[in-house]
Specification:
single chain, 371 residues, mainly alpha, Ferritin, 3 domains, 15 helices
C-alpha cells in the first residue's frame, strides 16, 4: 500500500519540481522586472508544493531521486529563452488545470487553489502581453496569481499538419485512380501550391480585415474620449474594479491615465477593446508568408518521394514519409497538451492515414469506373 502511495507522491513531486524549474527559468529570462517577479512567486509556490510531497514521501519511508527534467521541459525552456516565456505559456494551462482536478480529487484543497490560480495567471499574462501590460492588469498580477493564451508554435504545427494531411489525401486519391507517377507528382505539386496560396490569401484577408476593424474601433474610441471623457473614465474604472481593484483605487487610476490624451487612447484601446494600437493584430504580409511556407512544408512531404520513385514504390515511400511527419507533428503538439508523445503522435498518424485510405479507396473506385 505504501509503495503505491510513494509512487503516486513521487509523480506529484516530479511535476511540481518541473513547474518550479520552468517558472524559475521564465523569471530569469523575462526582461520586464514586474513579470519576472510574478514568475518567481509562481516558482516558489511550485517548489513549496514539491517540498510538501517530499515530506510525505519521507514519512512513508521513501527516498527522493535526483530530479532530472524531461525532454518536453528542456524544449520549453529552450523555446522560452529564444522567443520569450509568453511563447510557451499556453502549453502550461492544461498541466495546471490537471493539477487542480488531481488535488481536488485527493482533497488537497490548498494546492488545488494554487494550481487554479497559476492557470488563471498564465491566461492573464498572455492577454496582457497581447493587449498591453497596463495598470489594472499589472496590479492584479503583482497581487495574486492569474491565467493563459495563444501560441505561434501551435499555429505553425497546425499549418504544417493541414498541408501534410490534405496533400497526402490528394496524392493517395490520385494514386488510387492508377495514374502514372508523373501525373501524381504534377497533381501533388499543384495541390501544394493551390493549398498554400489559398491558405495565404485567407490569412491575408483575415488579418487585414482585423486591422481595418481595429483601426476603425480606435478611431471611434478617440472620438468618444473627446466628446465624453467622464464616461470613458467610468468605463475604465469599472474594468479595473472588475479585475479586483478597490473602487477608489480603480477610479484614481482611471483618472490618472485619462489625464494624458495619448495615454488615454492607448490604455482604452488595450483595456476596453483588447487591441494593441501599435500592432493592430500584426502584419498581414508576415502572416501571409508564414502561412504559405508552413502549409508548403507540410504538403511537400507526401509529394517528395514521387520525384525519385515511381509506381507502387513511390506510394509506399510517400506513406512512410508522411507517417513519420505526422508522428513528429503529433509529438510537437504534446508541448501544449502535456499528453504522452506516443499517444499524440500515434493519434495524428491514425487520423492522417485514415483520411488517405478513404481518398485512395474513392480514387480506386473512380479509376475502375472510368476504365
Amino acid at each position: 500500500m505504501n509503495e503505491n502511495k510513494i509512487k503516486t507522491y513521487l509523480d506529484f513531486w516530479d511535476e511540481e519540481m518541473t513547474g518550479a524549474l520552468l517558472y524559475g527559468s521564465f523569471s530569469d529570462n523575462e526582461k520586464d522586472p514586474r513579470l519576472a517577479e510574478v514568475y518567481r512567486r509562481m516558482a516558489e509556490s511550485e517548489f513549496q508544493h514539491a517540498g510538501n510531497w517530499a515530506e510525505k514521501i519521507k514519512a512513508l519511508g521513501g527516498t527522493l531521486p535526483e530530479f532530472k527534467p524531461g525532454l518536453r521541459t528542456r524544449i520549453l525552456i529552450s523555446l522560452s529563452k529564444r522567443f520569450g516565456p509568453a511563447f510557451v505559456l499556453p502549453g502550461l494551462v492544461a498541466q495546471e488545470n490537471q493539477g487542480v482536478k488531481t488535488y481536488n480529487h485527493i482533497n488537497e484543497k490548498g494546492m488545488a487553489r494554487d494550481e487554479r490560480s497559476h492557470a488563471m495567471l498564465i491566461t492573464q499574462i498572455t492577454h496582457s502581453i497581447s493587449g498591453g501590460f497596463e495598470g489594472g492588469a499589472l496590479a492584479m498580477l503583482e497581487g495574486r496569481h492569474r491565467a493563459t493564451g495563444g501560441n505561434a508554435l501551435r499555429a505553425a504545427v497546425l499549418g504544417a499538419n493541414d498541408g501534410m494531411v490534405s496533400n497526402l489525401s490528394l496524392v493517395m486519391g490520385v494514386a488510387g485512380a492508377a495514374l502514372d507517377s508523373k501525373a501524381i507528382l504534377i497533381t501533388g505539386l499543384a495541390g501544394m501550391l493551390a493549398g498554400a496560396i489559398s491558405m495565404a490569401l485567407g490569412e491575408w484577408l483575415s488579418v487585414q480585415s482585423s486591422r481595418e476593424l481595429y483601426s476603425h474601433q480606435i478611431k471611434i474610441e478617440s472620438g468618444e474620449i473627446d466628446e465624453s471623457p467622464e464616461e470613458e473614465v467610468g468605463e475604465l474604472a469599472l474594468i479595473y474594479e472588475a479585475r479586483g481593484l478597490p473602487r477608489e483605487q480603480a477610479e484614481s487610476l482611471a483618472r490618472q491615465l485619462m489625464s494624458n490624451p495619448h495615454n488615454a487612447l492607448d490604455t482604452l484601446a488595450r483595456e476596453e477593446l483588447g487591441i494593441n494600437p501599435e500592432e493592430l493584430g500584426g502584419s498581414a504580409w508576415e502572416a501571409t508568408i508564414t502561412s504559405f511556407l508552413l502549409f508548403a512544408v507540410g504538403a511537400i512531404v507526401p509529394v517528395f518521394p514521387f520525384i525519385f520513385f515511381s509506381g507502387f514504390t513511390a506510394v509506399i515511400v510517400s506513406i512512410l514519409f508522411s507517417t513519420v511527419g505526422l508522428f513528429i507533428l503529433g509529438a510537437i503538439i504534446t508541448l501544449f497538451t502535456g499528453r504522452s508523445v506516443i499517444y499524440s503522435g500515434a493519434r495524428m498518424v491514425i487520423f492522417g492515414l485514415l483520411a488517405a485510405a478513404v481518398t485512395f479507396g474513392i480514387g480506386r473506385l473512380i479509376g475502375v469506373s472510368i476504365g
